[in-house]
From TrEMBL:
Pfam families xref list: DsbD_2
PANTHER family, per database record: HEAVY METAL TRANSPORTER, HEAVY METAL TRANSPORTER-RELATED
Domain Urease accessory protein UreH-like transmembrane residue range list: 8-215
InterPro entries to which the protein is assigned, alphabetical: UreH-like_TM_dom (IPR039447)
Protein name: Sulfite exporter TauE/SafE family protein
Taxonomy, superkingdom: Bacteria
Transmembrane segments: 6-35, 55-75, 87-107, 128-147, 167-189, 201-222
Keywords: Membrane, Transmembrane, Transmembrane helix
Protein source organism: Photobacterium rosenbergii
Amino acid sequence: MVTGDFYAAFIIGLMGAGHCLGMCGGVSAAITLGVQNNQHTSRWPYLVLYNFGRIASYMIAGAIIGGAFANLASYGSQVTALASLRLLAATMMILLALYIGQWWHGVSKIEVIGKGLWRFLSPMATKLLPLRSPIAAIPFGALWGWLPCGLVYSTLSWAAVAGSATSGASVMLAFGLGTLPAMIAVGSMANQLQKWLKNLYFKRASALLLLAYGVHTGYIAIKQIM
């Protein structure tokens, strides 16, 4: 796996914080609401184990995508195949940057890809609420990790060029770790951090960084293909 892919995935998760707050933040907050009024129950085990389950699902998806595309690349010219996939990943990052910066919202349309699976998993996740113990937060988070999300799908394009199932899982681990500040903030009701993550200037500064990295990666991929 290219080290840059790990960092790129982490940055996507970190810079996409505002999107995370919108997609999963309400769930993260809801998990802790049931225990906040009980002085003898800490919300942290619930929050930590929920995110553990969520990130585990990201890693499983990354392993599947990374392993599948590595096998496909082995049937042809591996350098050309991986360079083509990297160009696709760079394109997805550029589109994601436009989405995070609120200049274009087309990326959200790819979330339709996972809606069929989510219709099957959503009732299973709902049945786990209210969470009766911290351990129950693991399967709940694991199910919620399959929520259709353009941010996740964009990062999976980087897992696809990682070169193996293990590297694909590592890319998604990095992405999951990048999303943690936003998820912990909303779960712990850190209002100041939430305001910062939702700030339009922060979003657009983050988007410009992603855009620059996407253009740079795309340029390198085109040179390899040519």
